[in-house]
Amino acid sequence: MRIFLLEPFFGESHKSWAKGLQRNSRHQVHILSLPDRHWKWRMHGGAVSLADQMQKLEPPDLILATDMLDLATFCGISRLDPSIPRIVYFHENQLTYPWSPTDPDPALKRDNHYSWINFTSALAADHVLFNSNFHRQEFLNALGGFLDQFPDHHNKHEISTIRQRSSVLHLGIDLPGFSEKERGVKPIFLWNHRW
Question: Can you give the pTM of this predicted structure?
């Protein structure tokens, strides 16, 4: 199977995950990416840039996008064949992720854009993957309150649609690298995101 992995924020943990999936998959995983800077701009503009990259390639059998991509916009402007399955993988989500105290967007009431992108991306996907069940439940449970803040047409029935399409795919960990360095010592792993 030929998979396009779309990552508009290709750095650190996102890059490690994508490269690890590419390296360990039995499928042909082709990564389309952008540099890991200007995360807000990547969530808005990444769909256009990655759609442009994809237009130059033969169509894939599957699209695997991360939560940093506006998947609904990507599908619209890329004129993606609707028969090509679309999966979105949530490393994080902007609905429940804590905002930095130095970020002016929440005080200026501009913080809903990124949560909305996550919501519509989940709706545009055929399947939604989360890195933990805690993260999955936290996102789904927060959607109702998020949608309630809008004046009308809350579309809360779509939460059950997303719930039915969602499951958990834990992050892979490269354990042999630890065992070679620390022979006889059991490694301790602490993952501070989404207990």
Answer: 0.88
